[in-house]
Specification:
This protein has nine helices and eight strands. The chain is of the alpha/beta class.
């Protein structure tokens, strides 16, 4: 699968390495010139390339957002329309605090910035060190570390679930972009807590306000 990645920091860079190692094609981008990523991309192998943000958006069958949440308005909305977009952002302010979103959620605000994109909130609850080290394709799904998914597009969630499984994690559905997305935000009991897939599904069912999510195909 072709995967565009917008943001080359801890999460974006780690995800790029995992996707490339799993055999996917990767276009890695950040706000600077693509040439500044050549050394990083060279370490990913021949199926990877540096790109501008817009090039990465147009390249990917799936596009991962791993940039600061506050910069979402700079995303190339036209290039992302109709794409499956993984929102790995969290609503942190520059000082480390959280923006007050009122009745909204961080991924709902991302969806407003890129209308027409098929948003799936995922890859936002693990630290980069856990994402880098906990993938285990040799384990059955319920024993793998969970990566949570929320969204309103069942097909998009299934595709993202397959990507998650391809890098050795367990896709665990938390529900809709609104309710399920809130369960994945900072401060939730499942945020920044590595947990096995089977235990994660049981934990979600006990959370206040949890929906009855489906399980993406693995």
């Amino acid at each position: 699968m072709k995967i565009g990645i917008i943001g080359s920091g801890n999460i974006g860079g780690t995800a790029a390495r995992l996707f490339a190692a799993a055999g996917h094609e990767v276009a890695l981008s950040h706000t600077g010139p693509p040439e500044t990523l050549r050394e990083a991309v060279a370490k990913l192998g021949p199926r990877s390339r540096p790109a501008t943000v817009e090039e990465a958006a147009r390249f990917g069958d799936v596009v991962l957002l791993a940039l600061p949440w506050r910069t979402r308005e700079s995303l190339p909305a036209n290039a992302l329309a109709g794409k499956i977009v993984i929102d790995a952002t969290n609503p942190y302010r520059p000082d480390g605090g959280l923006y007050d979103l009122g009745d909204s959620s961080s991924s709902e605000e991302v969806a407003r910035a890129i209308p027409g994109a098929r948003i799936v909130k995922a890859f936002n609850t693990l630290f980069a060190k856990d994402l880098a080290s906990r993938g285990r394709s040799d384990l059955p799904p319920d024993e793998r570390t969970a990566i949570f998914l929320a969204g309103d597009d069942a097909e998009a969630k299934s595709v993202v679930g397959q990507l998650v499984a391809s890098i050795g994690f367990a896709p665990v559905d938390t529900g809709s972009l609104a309710q399920g997305g809130r369960l994945q935000q900072p401060g939730s009991p499942i945020y920044a807590r590595p947990i096995a897939g089977g235990d994660a599904r049981a934990a979600i069912e006990r959370l206040p306000g949890a929906e009855k999510p489906s399980q993406p195909g693995v």
